[in-house]
Please model this.
Amino acid sequence: MTDTATAHATRQRLDDLLRDVFLLEPDELRDDLRRDELETWDSLGMVSLAVGVEETLGYHMSPDEAAQLSSIADLVALLRERGIDIA
Amino acid sequence: MIPPVPAPAVAWVTASARDRFAAAIYVPVVPTGTLPEGTATLVACGGGTLLDAAKAAAKRRPDPLVLVAIPTLWGAGAEASPVVVLGDEITVDAAQLPDHVVLWPELTETVPAELRRWGAADVWAHALEAIASPLATPELRAELAAIVDALAGMDPLAGDARAWLELSGRACAAQARAAVGLAHGIAHVLRGRLDGFGHARLVAAVLPTVVRRLGTEAPRWCETGLDATAIARKLDALTTPADTSAVLDAARAHWPAVLRDPCSRTNGYLVRRGELENLRDAAGAVAR
Model:
């Protein structure tokens, strides 16, 4: 698989994860979705997100990192900073 | 048996324990849920629901009320937990802990075998779901591992009533410092929706399957070194395949609520939309 294809596959896995963590319908997910728009992105949602990211992408997100996220775009940026190749 | 407490005292006592209670403790029994004016001490003797009602009454009363809790069976561990469950309302407050706990193992002697097994499953569930919880610290995991070790050598039908009561309280107090998981999430959502299934029976029905999944999916479980398959086999003896099937079948209609339950959301692995099929596959593989 090319790097681009790998990055897209990783993005697909992340999107599937986010739909499951935040109980979103497929058309509800977008990068600029903010935490304050989602009732499921509460303290328990942060826990689920951290567990899901570790299971799906192998990255152990600290509680501080999870608490500082305010949008999906923030999460994608954090994962890229941590070396995860994601489209 | 009861420590020195302020007078006047009254008691709420579950029906199955009333005769033994009256023969041993000289505190007037009043209808559960009532508190005569001026009551200074409430002795609550019963299961988790009765003890939670007593904890809530003691906490919410404007005048101080000393609470003495006497559990009649292991499982809920309500006597040792700051958590109160009243219907759909769950509150966590250290002020809700009873002032005194009295363990009276003889009260469990007349409890039917299936209730002892289901209660034992609830004790196991508190320890195992908390040990896999993403909220548990390494220190708490070590404490829970000691509880799991002790449980591994015990049989809910063969004596050791005091040990079961003690471990029940320890497991419940420990899980309150982290969280429980999917078995509790399913039990909370299905409570009252399946005839004959109370909390402990619901937990017992799904716990072996959830533990098998924890063993392969939960990152923190994998660090404990616990043998999920061996533990699940022991837990299989606390329920029946028919109960497991009935609960998983009933869960299908309520799965969106299970996904939203706070306990499901702190499970040791992420509970995804398709997890019910994974549970059914895991349960089916054992049945075959």
